[in-house]
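Recall the central idea of this unit: under ordinary conditions, the amino acid sequence of a chain determines the structure it adopts. In this exercise we apply that idea directly, starting from the sequence alone.
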Amino acid sequence: MIQKKLNIVRRAFKGTDSTHVGVHIYGLFIEGARWNHEQKVLEDSLPRELCCDFPEIYFLPTKISTERADASEQRDSELYTFECPIYQTPERSRILTTTGLRSNFLTSVYLPTKRPPSHWITRQVALLCEKNEK
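Accordingly, the structure predicted from this sequence is:
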């Protein structure tokens, strides 16, 4: 466990060249689901597994299309895309009165999945920067 944490720190502070664009995010946890590393898709949690480690995410600045595919038009053989929120903490109930946005909401990422987005929304799946240690 200690070696794993040391490797994360070493990778986080490893020097990059001047042409480096984007940012690597380490240390997130996924709550309410798990990540299948082999198939690279979101899946249901294993029994008694509320929260688990999520792999590194690489954010690359990119211009994206404003058009979105309608989830209801996707076929079973295709992968769906779930817009997964990222929160600072497991607490998600606080809302800013000035903006109406959640105070600990950071951003969201699009994750591939074999299930429709409604499945993950119902399970309140989210990525977290910290997890409950209770």
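The beta strands are 23-25, 29-31, 34-36, 41-43, 51-53, 57-59, 80-87, 105-113, 126-128.
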